[in-house]
UniProtKB/TrEMBL annotation, chain A:
It comes from the Bacteria. This is Ferrous iron transport protein B. The chain crosses the membrane at residues 221-247, 259-279, 291-313, 333-354, 366-388, 400-421, 463-482, 549-573, 593-616. InterPro entries: Fe2_transport_prot_B_C, FeoB_GTPase, G_FEOB_dom, Gate_dom, GTP-bd, P-loop_NTPase. Pfam families: FeoB_C (PF07664), FeoB_N (PF02421), Gate (PF07670). Residues 7-175 form the FeoB-type G domain. Keywords: Membrane, Transmembrane, Transmembrane helix.
TrEMBL record, chain B:
Keywords: Iron. Pfam families: FeoA. This is Ferrous iron transport protein A. Residues 5-85 form the Ferrous iron transporter FeoA-like domain. The lineage of its organism: Bacteria, Pseudomonadati, Pseudomonadota, Alphaproteobacteria, Caulobacterales. Transmembrane segments: none annotated. SUPFAM superfamilies: C-terminal domain of transcriptional repressors (SSF50037). Gene3D superfamilies: 2.30.30.90. The keyword Iron applies.
């Protein structure tokens, strides 16, 4: 009876695109924890399922794979977890193989491999509603007998079949015996034999669909069209960035108003003095100036998540492969690089899908050049302050256009840098590019919303854990020591922050930065958007006697256009994110490559700012 | 008359059956690995294939229907696959 009382451990295994993560979400709901496996940097997603009679099971969502014969770090984790060889992990009591019911051929071969491992197993035939709609007939009893494995049909996005699945897992956990693993890495001949066996099982128990999916073919005829497909991809990216600006504006105004109202309220309640200054000028204005960008970040993620769920990302990789290949990148690098538009950290980690070490390293080195969402606060602030909000060419918003240009600058420089990396550091065999193009699916609203919520949580967590202490420290640096009695300059000139800023100012003077900007760059190393909070704090304090206007209008009055453009150029390149550098160090497992990245990015940043500043001054922007 | 070609030589709309996977690629250092990866993605002898789409530059990469799924790969890798083209 002991076995029934202890928490059963479940591992989810399946092909990519089988809806495995959707099933994981359906099983565990909000009860999930995302971390890393000990020693490696593969994302470890674990959750808890409440089963009948109050018992709970822990579920591990393993990276998708076609085979236990691992080729990438992700797939190694899947293999080792299933085999019970993963250091620090208890072997799973039950392996749940998640299969796309409409695409069984490859997963049947995987099931044959999993069976050789000898652990109790359940097969979840997911997306069963689509199979039924297509008139695909699966002889469940026959398949069950043939495979010797319990089978449950599920529709993860509708939570259908989830209770049956939990019951089947519980039965297997209690009843099924563990046998010795007979698994070993299959060679080509064994793979052929297994494929033939899978084919025989398919023929015997699965009748081809009466109404096969023709929609995917029709959509692909447009989206993968050599010319129209690329045009659509570009248009999509353009719409995405315009949307980030225009859709978010009302929400951002609302948040900004709320923060102003809160600051005013606190200022009215608290007596004048240090505490009021810390809370209003330090914390509320600092955190508020970052919080305001939540709508933009969520809109960007909304596009990325929806396109991924729709099945478009693999198409984008297909369309971009040749262009990226020309720059020495792998087509698969498109997804890590696109994720880097949100944040370089998931981008660098997503580079694990690239099997080749060299291609992976190149992708990691250029991923931080992609315009991550932490740059958005900096870009929008400067754009709002210096670029007029007007329509050009009759349709495009000038501010949106400048933003588009900044993104383009990031992309072009990433391609050029990877070309240089390939020429300087290596030349060798081109790695294979092959990937499944999944069937298109209408993204499920609930799961998109759930993933968006996860993103918002991560962003707010960051805001709390990194930005709050950073702005507090900055407030201290900007407040103490007090100015002398007969001070003629703003108080901040006499503070620690002023001293540090002035000490470093000569280094940055040639690129047009004043000392306030230099101060902002220092906490800005914690995370890019902290620079905005820092500017907010320094200028709010320096301007204490003025009514607290918008930071943007303060900057517009204080900086020249050349300085503003130079600051933008700096932010395209500078590796202003300690967290990213930490992840790069871990992922490359090399200090040398981390330093190479830091060096080339700061070098490019200084060079670009220098050129931008002097060109802008020469053209009259000084 | 047979019409045996490398999949890398196929053009949009060509259909047929895979007759050899790997084959003469073993002189490549990673030929054995490539063969296994192709097999795992469903490219086995006897699989029905159809070239669905070609990229803009150099008609590369290509999208192939393999039995009932779709796979994207470069012509460079497709050279390891031999197909018997259906006669129109």
């Amino acid at each position: 009876m002991d076995i029934a009382l202890k928490t059963a451990r479940i591992a989810l295994v399946g092909n990519p695109n089988s809806g495995k993560t959707a099933l994981f979400n359906a099983l565990t709901g909000a009860h999930q924890k995302v971390a890393n496996y000990a020693g490696v940097t593969v994302e470890r997603k674990e959750g808890v399922v409440r089963a009948a009679a109050g018992r709970s099971m822990s579920v591990l969502d393993l990276p998708g794979t076609y085979s236990l014969r691992a080729r990438s770090p992700d797939e190694e984790v899947t293999r080792d977890a299933v085999l019970g060889r993963l250091a620090g992990e208890t072997p799973p009591d039950v392996v749940v193989c998640v299969a796309d019911a409409t695409n069984l051929r490859l997963v049947l071969r995987l099931i044959l491999e999993l069976k050789a491992v000898g652990r109790p197993m359940v097969l979840a035939l997911n997306m069963y509603d689509i199979a039924q709609r297509q008139g695909l007939r699966i002889d469940l009893d026959g398949l069950r007998a043939e495979l010797g494995v319990p089978i449950v049909t599920t529709v993860a996005t509708r939570r259908r079949g989830v209770d049956d699945l939990i019951a089947a897992i519980e039965t297997q956990a209690e009843m099924a015996a563990l046998s010795d693993s007979r698994w070993r890495s299959p060679d080509a001949a064994e793979l052929r034999a297994a494929a033939r066996e899978a084919e025989r099982i398919m023929k015997a128990h699965v009748r081809p669909p009466e109404r096969p999916d023709t929609l995917t073919g029709k959509i692909d005829a447009v989206l993968l069209h050599p010319v129209a497909g690329l045009a659509i991809l570009l248009a999509l990216l353009f719409v995405m960035f315009q949307a980030v600006f225009s859709w978010a504006a009302p929400l951002m105004d609302g948040i900004e108003g709320g923060i102003g109202w809160l600051g005013g309220l606190v200022a009215a309640v608290l007596p004048d003095g240090l505490l009021q200054s810390l809370i209003v000028d330090g914390i509320i204005s600092g955190v508020g100036s970052v919080l305001v960008f939540l709508p933009q970040i969520l809109i960007l993620f909304l596009f990325i998540i929806a396109l991924e769920d729709f099945g478009y990302m693999a198409r984008a990789a297909f369309l971009m492969d040749k262009i990226m290949g020309g720059a020495g990148l792998h087509g698969r690098a498109f997804i890590p690089l696109l994720s880097s538009f949100a944040c370089a950290i998931p981008g660098v980690m997503a580079a694990r899908v690239i099997d080749s070490k060299r291609d992976r390293l190149t992708t990691i080195l250029v991923a931080p050049l992609m315009t991550c969402s932490a740059r958005i606060p900096v870009y929008t602030l400067i754009i709002a302050a210096f670029i007029p909000n007007e329509t050009v060419w009759g349709f495009a918003n000038l501010q949106g256009l400048v933003m588009f240009g900044l993104y383009a600058a990031g992309i072009v420089s990433a391609l050029l840098v990877s070309l240089v990396i390939r020429k300087v550091f290596w030349r060798g065999a081109v790695e294979p590019f092959m990937m499944e193009l999944p069937t298109y699916k209408v993204p499920d609203l609930k799961s998109v919303a759930f993933n968006l919520w996860l993103r918002a949580k991560i962003f707010l967590n960051r805001a709390g854990r990194i930005i709050l202490p950073a702005v507090t420290i900055l407030w201290v640096l900007a407040t103490f020591p007090y100015p002398p009695e007969n001070a003629t300059l703003p108080a901040i000139d006499y503070s620690f922050a002023g001293m540090i800023g002035r000490a470093l100012e000569p280094i940055f003077a040639p690129i047009g930065f004043n000392w306030q900007m230099v101060i902002a760059l220092i906490p800005g190393m914690a995370a890019r958007e902290v620079a905005v909070a820092a500017l907010g704090t320094t200028y709010a304090i320096a301007d204490a006697e003025n009514a607290t206007g918008l930071l943007a209008s303060t900057l517009a009055a204080q900086w020249s256009l050349a300085t503003a453009l130079s600051f933008l150029a700096w932010y395209i390149f500078a590796p202003q994110c300690v967290a990213t550098l930490g992840v790069v160090r871990r992922e490359t497992n090399s200090l040398k490559w981390t330093w190479i990245m830091i060096g080339y990015m700061f070098g490019l940043a200084y060079l670009a700012s220098f050129v931008t500043y002097h060109v802008a001054r020469a053209l009259g922007g000084g | 008359m047979t019409d045996i070609i490398k999949l890398s030589q196929a053009r949009r709309g060509d259909r047929g059956v895979i007759v050899e996977v790997g084959g003469h690629t073993h002189h490549q250092a990673n030929g054995v690995e490539l063969e296994r990866r192709l097999l795992e993605l469903g490219f086995v002898e006897g699989a029905r294939v159809e070239l669905l789409h070609e990229g803009l530059f150099g008609r590369d990469p290509i999208a192939i229907r393999v039995d009932d799924m779709r796979v994207a790969l470069r012509r460079h890798e497709a050279a390891s696959l031999t197909m018997k083209r259906d006669l129109a």
